[in-house]
Amino acid sequence: MLPTIIVIAIVLILAIFLITSYNRLIKLRNWVQEAWSQIDVQLKRRHDLIPNLVNTVKGYAEHERETLESVVEARSQLVNGSPQERIDADNQIEGALKSIFALSESYPDLKANENFLNLQEELSTTENKVAYSRQLYNKSVAEYNIKRQSFPTNLMASMFNFEGEEPLSIPEEEREVPDVSF
């Protein structure tokens, strides 16, 4: 009788372990997807704000066509492609937006335009949300990958084909330390 109880207890403990490990992996994988969807929402918000900004700037800086076209081109890439391709397009937009905001220094009327200032503020807020969402995504990916690769959960992960996720990377040009001189 005692050996049967011991076997049943071991099987029960093993079953509880498998169920909790599997559910934990599912939960972490869904957190990664949720974190990505938050980035996607902010990228879409930025995507929708850009035409208004470009039109506002066009009125003041018509001959800055190249700068405006680079923003529009980068914007079109923002909603298509893989997550990493979209993040790359996002990085291009970031650079293009910096150029547009730099234009405002050359056009005092543009710099004082209420519509331009509101769009600049909204884009700045969106930039902060994108940065926060990226951090959340990378944290979720790290937690998921650690759990997926840790023993004994790695056995469960390989048995049910839980694939690893890639964290978002920083572009090489953003890794350089800015040169500040006084």
Automatic annotation (TrEMBL):
Pfam families: LemA. Keywords: Membrane, Transmembrane, Transmembrane helix. Its main location: membrane. It is a single-pass membrane protein. Coiled coil: none annotated. It is found in: Membrane. The chain crosses the membrane at residues 6-25. Belongs to the LemA family. This is LemA protein.
